[in-house]
Design a protein that fits this description.
mainly alpha, globular
Length: about 80
């Protein structure tokens, strides 16, 4: 699969995620990153699920996944 195909698939998946969440505004980056993770093949579905359900430290804030704290890579702007 070439970069253009992968970008198109990520865009389609991000759109599906956006629709499934009720079309909220201001969540484009979150939807793009989720789609990118799902389609990149670098994370399994189980790893993705477990990263979302990590328990926060006792009395503390939720634990951030390293993928959430990394700077975004170059990608085309989203328009949904």
């Amino acid at each position: 699969m070439n970069d253009a195909d992968l970008t198109a698939r990520i865009c389609q998946r991000a759109y599906q995620i956006w629709e499934n969440e009720g079309r909220p505004s201001g969540r484009q980056l979150s939807h793009w990153l989720q789609a990118e993770l799902e389609l990149s093949g670098s994370f399994t579905t189980q790893a993705l699920k477990s990263s979302k359900t990590k328990k926060p430290p006792e009395g503390g804030a939720p634990v951030k996944n390293s993928a959430q704290s990394r700077p975004p890579s170059k990608r085309p702007p989203l328009s949904h």
